[in-house]
Amino acid sequence: QGSSQLPLRQPPLPCALGRRHMKRESEEGASGMTGVKHQRIGAEAPGQNSNGMTIEKPQEDYREYLALTLENGLRAIVVSDSKCDKAAAALSIKVGSMSDPKEIQGLAHFLEHMLFLGTEKYPKEEEYKEFMAQHAGSSNAYTAESLTNYHFSISPDNLDVALDRFSQFFIAPLFNESATDRELKNVHSEHSKNLQSDMWRWMQLVRNDANPKHPMNHFGTGNIETLKETPDRDGYHVRQRLIEFYTKYYSANLMCVVVLGKESLSDLEAMVRGHFGAIVNRNVRVPTGLEIGGDEPAFDIRSWPRFVRCLPVKDVRTATFQFLLPQQYPMRWRTKPTSYMSFVLGHEGKGSLLSCLKARGCVTDLMAGPALDEGGASLFEVTVHMTEAGESQVGAIGEWLFSYIRLLQQCPVSEELWRETQSIQEMNFRFRSVMQPMGVVTSLASAMQNDLPVDKVLSGPSKLWELDKAEISEVAGMLTCARLRLVLAMKSFSEEKECPESERWYGTKYGAGALPEEWHKAWERSRLGDAGGGTGAAAESAAQLGLALPMKNPFVAEDLELKPQPAEGVPKYPVKTDASSMGISNSILQVYFRQDDTFNLPKAHLLTTFYSPWVGESAENRTKAWVWATAVAEELNEFSYDAEAAGLSYRLTQTSRGMSVTVGGYQDKIPVLLRAVVEKMLAMTEVSEHTWNIVHTVLLRSLKNAAEKRDPLGQASEWQQRLVWQHAVTAAEKLEIFKTLTRESIQGVSSKIFERCYVEALLQGNLMDPGPVAEAMGTVLRPAASVGGSLPSLCAARLPGTEDSSWPPGGCVLLRRRGTNPEEKNGAVIVTLQAADETLENLLRCQLAEQVLKQRCFDELRTKQNLGYIVHCVSCAHELGGAGSCGLQVMVQSETHPAEVHRRIRVWLSAALVELEKEADDNLEKYLKALLVQYQDRPKNLASEVSRNWSAVSSRSFRFTRRAEAIAFLQRDPAELLSEFRTFVRESLVNAPRIAVEVLAAQHDDAPPPRSQEEAGDENGGGEGDGGGEIVVVLESAGDIEAFRKRVTWRKSPATIET
User: Fold this and answer.
1) What whole-number distance in Å separates Cα of residue 92 and Cα of residue 138?
2) Contacts (Cβ under 8 Å, ≥6 apart) of 273
């Protein structure tokens, strides 16, 4: 719900490989395509279809696509989905925050918020979102630099009505004065939420360094100063300027619409024409690319290289080398020359820049790729995360970087490397999974603004099409000091010396000036080398430093054939296999297996939990296991990087009761990758000093940031978990344990984990049996001893309820803590109602309550009361395989004192639950149907199906039929269901025991401020006082928490091993 403003539009270059350079498509990738005519979307005459145009799509994408242009110039794609269980639509408009008037910055973002708050046809502010909640829908929007995107999903039967409401945003919005004043506060709250985000702070420094005469130099989010105080002072009426902005830019010819539904293409086309044909075409032309600045460049680099130093919020040590290029996308969508640079500079294998810098002990991580590609400019950046020793070696790090750049500038482009990258992207697009409806419409609506050929609107951004060595060489040639902006972010900087200036919008302490001459000269020497040295000298010089271009990737999949399925068919749910047939005892390994018969892709997923009694014994053992797992991943990094670049992935993580290993991707190479991982796990009985130094640096920094700089809502969640989970520790507690560890204390961890262990695994995909995967794990498991007949349990607290006469109905345990970041202005509150045992029936009743209340909570506490940008009401459950509790949870992050926020939550919740019990049947039935639609939503890809089945394995309920049971329950007689629901609300929710966590910001007094007469007045219709939730226990110290934990009853998860 709600909307957002993006820090900077990320360039749409998903074709780059790997986890650390540029961003990847969330879907998987390649080319089941048919012949098409090359014609751009909108190139046809207005009012006509793109007849004969076939949009190139992945092999298993069964959806049909049709592009058309309406009489008013609006361009559209309709998508007919024969398996549709969720419809969706999106509209993008080619205007964003760079079009803000200088005198009212943030206006485009403010306008995006306002369109949700009433139209002439549907004037009620909450009507649109309430309609969404009643019909299994969701909606959102975002404002980027030169684009704004609005989108929603809805139950398929309600698409037509939803489009009618949605299209009115762009035909006749109201911009009510009262709504304008209130929503302005929510925009300010959104900005307040971002004040302690280093990403937002650094992006604003980039904008501030842009040419003052170019629209790139702006503040896009807006706040109370830019949207009220300054306009009021200067005589601008913001509501009138909103209307003027809307009238000027919201023109049909700048809009692209995508609609996905179950209807035929012709019916969907009729919907689009009927609903969006009335949008006015003002024939607006907005500048793009270089035109945006007129005669002014986005950045004036005559004084570059520029050197910026800034004090970060979190404990980080980063050096970011940003090189200014001309805007690359969409102009170079076929060649994407920066993708070659990103892949090579961001590589992590042997001979890579990262590998060599790690060997020097000065760097722990590296990322490369475009960070901005907008307004005629592109900033290509290489960011390194440094060790403490690396802080004093920035000059040397730059020399290594420019030595690698010399290799790229003076040596020919590797056609072999480019072809390999191209083939991987072809494969990824061809075998890309079907996307979720909301993802399809949102991405397509934005992609259409790039004016790619209509047949390439899906495939164009995802693949490499043409090798243009000249363009790649041109980009490489621009990686020079003359085009460099170097940003150092270090906690060791002082405000007085390195960072004396304060940035206006975020308060970032920084300093800026010229690059030190010593660095400048040394880096140019590294880049240029000896005069006349040529290609051979560059390669030889790089080799002496250990630098080289990436080698051929051994993990590129070769076997892409679908495996034959058994004649009797494939079971609907995973089946437990006999591990003894693979030479492993069933008391040590149990694998649940299902061959895919739905998605028809050459992929598979393996998820495992290694249960270890040793890990479950103590927080210290769990911390040691966490450090050891990170060390294993670090040792495997060069090896596994190629696997991930070729479409595979793995994760090794510590859990509360052992370790988890997951592997996924093209099934051809999964056994190879898995065998390497488990063999390293077994062999790594001690951690080398080099690996320890890297891991210790990374984890210490991570824990300090989690303990000291986590956002307020994250801190509240952490304390809530500390209360109700027996094994939970806070980041601060884990940090203290971590500080006691040495490299020697990690020795022998693998032996302790595997000497007694038990593994449960789920394997699904394009495999005929689990044999090869089980064999790969055999190295670790065959020597292991069984843990016996049971496992350590997960334990969750059950609060006293009606059975405890000393505990009043709705009694509340309050934990109040001071936030750990003294610069954070927001506090947070989480109120959790433990309503009932987590049976399926009770959980569904809680989810129905959420379906009704979530939008009402948002509308009251955020939209009307302006408590804060983050407001949620959700159902919750312990997920202990049926042994825990379920209920509701309300979360708010706000600058208002947490005690006052808590009081307002209680008041709202008390009234809302009373109203919920009295809700009319016909209204409740709408929400009931919406919940049913959500449960009927089928997995769109293999990963989604695996995730659903894994929840049954990881919770140890093994109840794979749970969703089908939920559907059957929700399809019962509505009258009976609603009668039971009202009883549940009255007897379980209204009087549910509660846990409330209040996290206070630095400016909040320990005691809440007195309420004004107005605040104490008729809230929520009055008559409710401070609401329910009488505070029975107040916890403030560690001793209070431990005393409380001794008082509660602990519910245990299933622990029996059935062989």
Assistant:
1) 17
2) 70
Please give the Cα distance from 877 to 844 (Å, whole number). 11
Q: Residue type at 71?
A: E
| Peptide bond between residue 305 and the one before it cis (omega within 30 degrees of 0) | yes
Distance CA 772, CA 770 (A): 6
DSSP 75-113: EEEEEE-TT-SSEEEEEEES--GGGS-TTSTTHHHHHHH
Phi and psi at 143, nearest 5°, equal -115, 120
Measured CA to CA, the distance from residue 217 to residue 441 in angstroms comes to: 31
Question: Going by DSSP bridges, is the β-strand pair 509-514/306-310 parallel, antiparallel, or unpaired?
Answer: antiparallel
Please tell me what DSSP assigns to residue 950.
H
pLDDT digits (tens, 9 = 90+) for 235-261: 999 999 999 999 999 999 999 999 999
Q: Alpha-carbon distance 127 to 863, whole Å? A: 13
Helices (H), 223-366: 224, 230-234, 238-249, 265-276, 337-345, 353-359
Q: What is the pLDDT of residues 4-57, one digit of tens each?
A: 666 543 433 323 333 344 332 233 332 232 222 223 333 333 434 455 568 999
Give me the count of residues in the chain.
1059
* Res 783: pLDDT: 77
CA angle 625, 712, 372 (to 5 degrees): 85
The DSSP code for 448 is G
Q: By three-state DSSP, how is residue 44 classified? A: coil
pLDDT at residue 799 tops 90: no
**Helices (H), ranges, 75-229:** 107-114, 127-134, 159-167, 177-194, 198-209, 224
**What percentage of the chain's residues is helix, strand, coil (to nearest 5)?**
40, 20, 40
CA distance 687 to 739: 17
Q: 């891991």: which residue's tokens?
A: 695
For residue 635, the tally of other CB atoms under 10 A from its CB is 19
- Torsion angle, alpha carbons of 215, 220, 225, 227, to 10: 90
Phi, psi values for residue 844, rounded to 5°: -65, -35
Q: Name the CA radius of gyration of the chain, rounded.
A: 29
For the whole prediction, is pTM greater than 0.85? yes
Q: CA neighbours within 13 Å on the CB side: how many for 334? A: 7
Helices (H), 608-745: 613-616, 619-635, 637-645, 670-683, 689-709, 712-724, 731-740
| 13 to 339, 343, 463, 467: CA distances (angstroms) | 7, 12, 9, 15
* Cα dihedral 965, 970, 972, 975 sign: positive
For residue 583, give Cα distances in angstroms to 587, 806, 905.
Answer: 12, 57, 57
Name which of 204, 601, 257 is nearest 440 in CA terms. 257
Give the Cα separation of 927 and 933 in Å (integer): 10
Please write the tens of the pLDDT for every residue from 549-597.
999 999 999 999 999 999 999 999 999 998 888 788 888 999 999 999 9
> Mind giving me the DSSP string for 812-880?
EEEEEEE-S-TT---EEEEEEEEEEE--HHHHHHHHHHHHHHHHHHIIIIIIIT---SEEEEEEEE--S
pLDDT digits 0-9 by tens, 109-137: 999 999 999 999 999 999 999 999 999 99
